Write the structure tokens for this entry.
Amino acid sequence: MQKLYLPQLAVIDQIVDETADTKTFTMHFDDPQYNAGFRYLSGQFVEASVLGVGEAPFGFCSNPNRSGTFAITVRAIGRVTRAMHAMHPGDLLGIRAPLGNHFPLQEVQGFDVLFVAGGIGLPPLRSLIEPMLDMREKFGRFTILYGARTPADRVYKARLEEWAQRKDLTLLQTVDVPDENWRGPVGVVTTLFEHTAIDPAATVAFTCGPPVMIRFVIQDLLAMGFPEDHIISTLERYMKCGVGKCGHCAIGHKYICVDGPVFSWRQIKKLPER
């Protein structure tokens, strides 16, 4: 049995600059046997550690169907993340994973799916979008709404372009502050709802982003008539140890790192305010 607090060494294979303060790290475990047997699910997360600096949680952003490597997207906002941004391919990270629960994938087959992401909230949803696209025929209408502060603050620009070219999904993007080359909508991501055709009873919505964004997204989805268990979100910002021991992420009787980070609105609304 894997020891809860024992990280495995992972080798950084590639680092991609997504924005001025955000990078994507692709890596594999240094132990070939461990790497060969490693599996995870969309919505789960890792605890990444830098020796002598600390540890922080990050959701997987890669496709669980692609074995051999995995990826996380990291914004430089603290000691651990800044230390990670100073690393290079070939450097080692400590990784504890997979942790937490996961997005419902099999359970939502046959439904339309709607993804609403803001800024750095797209990475964990990408880990669900990609495997869904691997079996696109099992879902109905496929809609992705993405908002960012500026065009330059959008992550996965090349992948966004790929999605935009697909005929079997709808991608709408908006920014708060446009630049001279931006030709898309301007405003918060919820303004994109008026440009989409959504049947709430037939759709499952997944949302991830800043808490204030999620609050307004859920408010609008409920106003549209979405069932409470058709609204799925994540609460990973509260996590610390990742295994339900430190109590940092405890909200009422739930430990976000163990019972979550994925919750339906029906579950979230029962949690005490924090």
